[in-house]
Amino acid sequence: MTVADVRTRFLDFYAKRGHAIIPSAPIVPENDPTTLFTSSGMQPLVPYLMGAEHPEGARLANSQMSFRAEDIEEVGDNRHTTFFEMLGNWSLGDYFKQEQLPWIFEFLTNKEEGLGLDPEKLYVTVFGGDAESGMTTDTEAVEIWKKIFNEKGIEAKFVELGTEERGNEVGMQGGRIFAYGAKKNWWSRAGVPSKMPAGEIGGPDSEVFYDFGLPHDPAFGPECHPNCDCGRFIEIGNSVFMQFIKQEDGSFKELPKRNVDFGGGLERLTAATRDNPDVFLTDIFDAARAVLESRSSQTYRNQIPITRSFRIILDHMRAATFMLASGIKPGNSEQGYILRRLIRRSIREADKLGIKEAVLAEVAESFGAAYVGQYPFVQAASAIIREELEKEEAQFRKTLANGLREFEKHVGFTKPYIEAEAVFDLYTTYGFPLEMTEEMARERGLSVDTEAVQKLMDEHQVKSRAGAAQKFAGGLADQSEQTVRYHTAHHLLLKALQQVLGPEVHQRGSNITAERLRIDFNYGQKMTDEQKAEVEKIVNEKIAEALPVIRTVMPRAEAEKLNAEHEFGANYPEQVTVYSIGPASATESDPKFTEAFSIEFCGGPHASSTSELGRFKIKKEEASSAGIRRIKAVLE
């Protein structure tokens, strides 16, 4: 089936069973500052699962757009994605296990109304109890599943495994229904039962796995079982039963109104209908995959490293497309930072495939067409999506190319390592994070001596210490009123550069007089007129906002947790001085660091408000040395 087929069949199936079909909530949660993205079908419905009445009634179903940033590093195998759709049905105090489990089995196996999956390929898990809290095995779910499978003529042996580790030791044992502990088959917002506070609700869940019949990979243990990570089994659905409320004495009491929350990954369910465990071979990725194959002259299934690069680009660009269509722009914080990371990882993987020219906008365009029936807002935003992707790709490809060329100079064919000096130079000159250099080294089978790199950082600090006193006094030629204003403008400028050019931009030198300020910073190419204009705009906006400039003395560790800007490789005392700029409501007693525009380690002095600075103007932007740019600016 196609993704659209599965989505439609699911919603129709539950509509016929009295469920109101509700729309997907936005991918960026509304009125929820606690999380960056909607990460599950349950998330937008938590108030109703906690007792509020839903305007559409007690039976609901939908397909929810979801994004999980924590899965970024997992992408590359055949089943993990950051963006996905979660099919869900809910009972808010209405039906419970006796209805839910037979219904979901019918949807999965019925050929007329459902997906027509072979019931012999379905295996289920249930909650097997929790000794620490005294909760016992969900025998009710076990008996329901036994009846369901027996009616299909399938022997339903019950096996208690408890943990994944034990499963990998003893294997399937002819089982069809498997019990695992609270870490796998219990749901509450606080985690396992023993971690739940009094008054918290939770309950057991029951997962359905599809058996793709792949041979077990012994790298994951001698034996296979449903929760094994070898790829033979993939979870395609989970029914959560919110059944209990925790009491003050640690015991659990049945809820008077029990809820059901089912979630099934749309792409995984579609893959099951094709009996192919690779979600990237479902139809939603076909056009995008064809673009990459055409532009790279590579075949998706050619070899593992190539297939992995394909999957990362396909996943990341689908997620980026939905984010851009939802109004998120690449940036250096919150959702914008995640979006920029997805784009830059995609560019690097495209580079591995041999694609040296811009390709991301073309890949994104294919997703707009693929989802036009369900999410027309994506295609409607195609012009914005193309503009943002082309801009980001052009900017980062130059940086990446410069750094990769320099990296290649240091890679020998006889050495099993890359010199610490090269790693250090890539960071200081080209803005390559140490993690990126280490990743590139690993891909070549090379090691990195991190201790030697740290030693170079320490030596660098010793050499620069003579100039540090001037820098930490502000790097000022004098402490006249105008020089102090330039010093404050310098902080605004550095933050604006990071917002426009990327978070990897850092100061590499400065000189401030009463006539002008000068900053050197790592960046691999000449700034465009548009970039310079945007930097000026940001600085002048912050000046116009009359933001307070707050001096705070605090422990170094605390300042580092705030991600305060500081000198690369520097050794700081236990107590440091930090200057923060904004927000407008900040005071010395309440600096409101989390809302500040800029935070830096700095000795001062500074203006007390950005309103004292005047109009900021970039006079010149030029190369200072390899990979280092220089800006000279004035306050008019």
Provide structural commentary.
This protein starts with a helix and ends with a strand. The strands form four sheets. Strands 1, 2, 3, 4, 5, 6, 7, 8, 9 and 10 form a ten-stranded mixed sheet that branches. The protein has a four-stranded antiparallel sheet with strand order 13-14-19-18. α1 crosses α7. It has 19 helices and 19 strands. It is α+β, with helices and mostly antiparallel strands and 636 residues long. About 2% of the residues have low confidence.
Layout of helices and strands:
Blueprint: H1 3-15, E1 20-21, H2 46-49, E2 59-67, E3 83-92, H3 97-109, E4 122-127, H4 139-151, E5 158-162, H5 164-170, E6 177-180, H6 182-185, E7 186-188, E8 201-211, E9 233-246, E10 252-265, H7 266-273, H8 286-296, H9 304-325, H10 334-352, H11 360-370, H12 376-380, H13 382-409, E11 417-418, H14 420-430, H15 434-443, E12 447-448, H16 450-472, H17 481-501, E13 507-512, E14 517-522, H18 529-544, E15 549-555, H19 556-561, E16 575-581, E17 598-601, E18 616-625, E19 628-635
Parallel strand pairs: 1-2, 4-6, 5-6, 11-12
Antiparallel strand pairs: 2-3, 3-10, 4-8, 7-8, 8-9, 9-10, 13-14, 14-19, 15-16, 16-17, 18-19
Helix pairs in contact: 1-7, 3-4, 8-11, 9-10, 9-11, 10-13, 11-13, 13-14, 14-16, 17-18
